[in-house]
Amino acid sequence: MSSKQEAIPNLIREKIQKVEQENDVKLTTMQKVLCSIEGPLVSILDVLYGDVNLFILDQHMEKANEDIAEKLKINVGDEIDLREVIIHKHGRPLVYGLSYIPKDRCSNTVIEKLLKEDQTTGRIILEHEIETITKINNIRIEKPSAKLQNLFHVNEDMLVREYVLIHKKNIVIWSKEAYPLSYFKD
Q: What are the structural domains of the chain?
């Protein structure tokens, strides 16, 4: 055993530290856990709050523009499912989610469930036992859009994370999750 002790490298920890330094904030342990969890937040929110619910704000099929195509590593014009949701408990919003899902990388059954059911993408993935790898691309604090101010009834910075779910070396979901910086302080 070496007498020299070095910290184990951790890219997520480093991203969180960078966010704290650049914004002069100290994230709570819970916020750090929510930033670093691999996969959708609904699993941990279920543990913390009991059953949480999903409200679909918008969902439709559209053609990928340049930005979305780059995020998903698909061609401009490919069909995607755009899905905007709020995870809430008794009507209190907990987390806003935006996802882009390339239609050609999902089975017809998964696409049908996404379009017809008020289920999270994470639960659909679990139900169909789809093995995925999560890659967290970005963690940051940003000013809220008018939509987020309205949804959360606040005018404060949002803690945001962006990640992709990869299945068989292809991105099957690009997702952004956001919530007010004052949330998950307990």
A: 23-180 (3.40.1410.10)
